[in-house]
């Protein structure tokens, strides 16, 4: 919008829209001879309004997903959803699918097994991850007041009573689904219930004092990484097959890559962690050292898994696919993350993590194929 001149100019509207009015200044008694300028101004105002509307839409979406930069929502149910951080459900849901694939017994076109898989995903994602995120926000409310003051608890948009109720509802709901899955699958040992109680305990000591594992960069990040990789994998595999020690060892090792991903998230919270005395790796070692620890754990772990698939399970094709998925991650590390891990953390994760999660599925499929190969060999040997 142009500024008004100081010599008795009047304001005349030259163009209107549903969103704005553009004005140009002209002296009394003269004709407006510059309508083009009005159109330019109108275009600029409309463009700004469009960008603001888009920004509001983005903020609302971030609010519902529990991401940084969220809108300050007042609806209590939207706030409850935000507390569970739906964006964090995805790795757990994916991990359950990887575990089902690793079992070697999941049938992708079986309606009953599809229903069981979806129930297991509901247990691992909205309920147990939601419980983990809510209890983490509760114990992190002072840190979030520094790092992410828009979050529901530090902003005061949800009461203590409502938070505690939500924690118990999500925890008991997850345990109830685990018990249901054990009954549904006909387990003589309630393995789903056992895994759920174990995982819930890890979630609690990760956030709550006196242990509060997240106070230690190594222990906290590994607990987080294993919760995103090993635990959902175990749930999916135990639901449809047998959870074996070799696969448990493989996924525990694979969780080191999850440790690296957890370190990525620490770079955005350096200031708050330092003020609150939390020894995240970027705080303990500095940004430059921590970024190399981060990419090393991600890359070395996946390369080790690829080697195990090739020479341990003799699944050379799956190993080659996994290697092909590791290389783009390395490229994005050098392009985005290593130059500036603080500014480019989100851009790096958006670019590289799809390759990591498909690599996880590749490892699961390799394990499932190996199980079926051994079963077929045993069957053929018995027939002889």
From TrEMBL:
GO process terms (BP): chlorophyll biosynthetic process
Membrane spanning stretches: 163-181, 187-206, 218-235, 247-268, 355-378
Mitochondrion in keyword set: no
GO molecular function: chlorophyll synthetase activity
UniProt keyword Transmembrane helix, yes or no: yes
GO cellular component: membrane
Highest rank taxon of the organism: Eukaryota
InterPro entries xrefs: Chl_synth, ChlG, Prenyltransferase_related, UbiA_prenyltransferase, UbiA_sf
Subcellular location: Membrane
Entry membrane topology: Multi-pass membrane protein
UniProtKB keywords: Chlorophyll biosynthesis, Membrane, Transmembrane, Transmembrane helix
Gene3D superfamilies, per the entry: UbiA prenyltransferase
Protein name, per record: Chlorophyll synthase
């Amino acid at each position: 919008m142009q500024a008004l001149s100081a010599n008795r100019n009047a304001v005349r509207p030259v163009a209107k829209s549903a969103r704005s009015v553009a004005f140009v200044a002209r002296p009394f008694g003269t004709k407006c001879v510059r309508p083009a300028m009005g159109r330019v101004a109108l275009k600029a105002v409309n463009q700004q309004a469009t960008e603001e509307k888009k920004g509001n839409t983005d903020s609302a979406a971030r609010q519902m997903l529990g991401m940084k930069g969220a809108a300050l929502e007042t609806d209590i149910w939207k706030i409850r959803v935000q507390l569970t951080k739906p964006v964090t459900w995805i790795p757990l849901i994916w991990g359950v699918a990887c575990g089902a694939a690793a079992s070697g017994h999941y049938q992708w076109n079986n309606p009953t097994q599809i229903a069981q898989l979806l129930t297991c995903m509901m247990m691992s994602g909205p309920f147990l991850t939601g419980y983990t995120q809510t209890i983490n926000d509760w114990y992190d409310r002072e840190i979030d007041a520094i790092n992410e003051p828009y979050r529901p608890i530090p902003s005061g948009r949800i009461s203590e009573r409502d938070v505690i109720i939500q924690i118990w509802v999500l925890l008991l709901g997850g345990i109830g689904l685990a018990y249901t899955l054990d009954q549904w699958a006909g387990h003589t040992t309630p393995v789903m219930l056992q895994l759920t109680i174990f995982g819930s305990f890890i979630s609690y000591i990760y956030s709550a004092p006196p242990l509060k594992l997240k106070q230690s960069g190594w222990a906290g990040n590994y607990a987080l990484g294993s919760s995103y990789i090993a635990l959902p994998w175990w749930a999916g595999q135990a639901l449809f097959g047998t959870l074996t020690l070799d696969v448990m060892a493989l996924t525990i090792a694979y969780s080191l890559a999850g440790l690296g991903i957890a370190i990525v998230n620490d770079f955005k919270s350096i200031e708050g962690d330092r003020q609150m005395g939390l020894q995240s790796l970027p705080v303990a070692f500095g940004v430059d050292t921590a970024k190399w620890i981060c990419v090393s754990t991600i890359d070395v772990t996946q390369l080790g898994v690829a080697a195990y698939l090739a020479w341990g399970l003799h699944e050379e094709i799956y190993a080659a696919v996994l290697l092909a998925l590791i290389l783009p991650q390395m490229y994005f590390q050098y392009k985005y993350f290593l130059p500036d891990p603080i500014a480019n953390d989100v851009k790096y994760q958006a670019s590289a993590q799809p390759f990591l999660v498909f690599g996880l599925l590749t490892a699961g499929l390799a394990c499932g194929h190996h199980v079926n190969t051994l079963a077929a060999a045993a069957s053929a040997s018995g027939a002889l």
